């Protein structure tokens, strides 16, 4: 059991460390990041319950709506909602790169608990594949969400609502594309590799842009 938990948790911690250490200009309070991670972890259970209820009640007659669209929308919406309620107006959300870290934290909180539950059901043989795809994809969806929330908070007033909407819609689109590829079953592997390469490229591009925005923000405040 200890080995399984270690294997399930390790990818999330490694990915979070990767994005945390890329921020060399400022150090975000670890307690707030930990709380955000816990929010994401707790969020796993109501989301899984909601998905279970909808599946059992057969709300959707179209399997694509149920397995592709509904799953992506629900997961990203609730992560976005918690960030808006608990983090967006927090005093420690004080620079553009913070959005990336909080987005990654809540997403990896969710992905880590989901990974634990999955490995408990199917064993550690699936751990490597899940680290490469579901866990890392959740982290990158969080990067995109957090990047646009950071843009929203530190942009002109007329752009605030626009970026808040993009912070919700962009991860949903990416998540639905990811789910759709898996839905193709026999052909998913041919599309998943280029999609994951694109997702990493896109996510790291947003990380770089967020870092540049941070430098501009600190320069404007005459902190560098």
Automatic annotation (TrEMBL):
Q: Which UniProt keywords apply?
A: Cell membrane, Hydrolase, Membrane, Protease, Transmembrane, Transmembrane helix
Is Transmembrane found in the keyword set? yes
This protein's source sits in the domain of life called Bacteria
Q: What is its EC number?
A: 3.4.-.-
A molecular function GO annotation: peptidase activity
Q: Which residues cross the membrane?
A: 6-21, 33-54, 69-88, 100-121, 127-150, 162-181, 187-204
- Please name the PANTHER family in this protein's record: PROTEASE PRSW
Q: Which NCBIfam families match?
A: intramemb_PrsW (NF033739)
Q: What does this protein do?
A: Involved in the degradation of specific anti-sigma factors.
Name recorded for this polypeptide: Protease PrsW
Species for this entry: Viridibacillus arenosi FSL R5-213
